[in-house]
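step 3/5: co-fold with oxalic acid
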Amino acid sequence: MALLISYHDRDTAPWVEAFRAELPQMDIRVYPDVGNPAEIEYAALWQHPQGDLQNYPNLKAILSFGAGVEHIVSDPLLPKAVPVVRLVDGAVVQDMALHALHWVLHFHRGYHQYARQQRQGQWQPRPAISPARRRIGIMGMGQIGQALAKLLHGLGFVVTGWGIDPTDVAQGIGYRCGSHELEAFLAETDILINALPLTPATAGLIGEAELARLPNGAFVISESRGGIIDETALLTALQRDHLDAAALDVFAVEPLPQHSALWTSPDVFVTPHIGGINYPETAAVVMAENIRRVQRGEAPTPLYDALKGY
Ligand code: OXD
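step 4/5: write tokens
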């Protein structure tokens, strides 16, 4: 019985240590030192070499190192009968909420403008509004969206979520759902936050027409996946001053290509997909518990749902 770790571009030593602490009986292998492929029963993956999963005839579960699983399910040779398990770790949920909160406060208080003013040696307090007059729209009300909504609502912001399906939200938080409510949701959003998973239903969801629905001077924060907000349309809306600024942590292509105009736009803040940090000491606990569930004959959770696309 072995667990294979295939974690693209990461130091796997802390992960091996964390999994050993959680699963002392498990033989842990790190790709490409797979050993006998027939012994691999579990695979923990982030951007594995496509087609590789075909080599393990006794796989019982595939565990993602992230909440998103498109890096796994896009593999055309994915073994269809093996469950794919998303990673929902409270520590990452909290980090993602804090990442978005950072940018909300940054834009809400105009710190991006003060940074510019400092470079020009300009002492000029700017007009400000209270949180109670700032409308935050969160696309995607999964665990991250819900945690963020509660945090922002608690700070006095006006918060509305949007999602594809109906869902329950905490008291005081608004919710709109479905494509027929997207326009209205965007029209009443001063700071738009993208916390949606990338699925066939969300790919390219926010293009030129949708960005045009946002009020003049709106802000965009994207932290779940690129490919949902059209980057060219976003740049155009910023250049035309319809939008004020954007903070992007995720991109259609990662790493963000050197030639991308997003790097040099004065209105765009680029971070390299660091919104949620994956800590081995918390994530391995969640992933190991899922492995134990499979060993006990129970379903791991949350499972990738091919119909929903995440
Ligand atoms: C994730 C990520 O999917 O880190 O969790 O992007």
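step 5/5: annotate
The CA atoms of residues 46 and 65 lie 6 Å apart.
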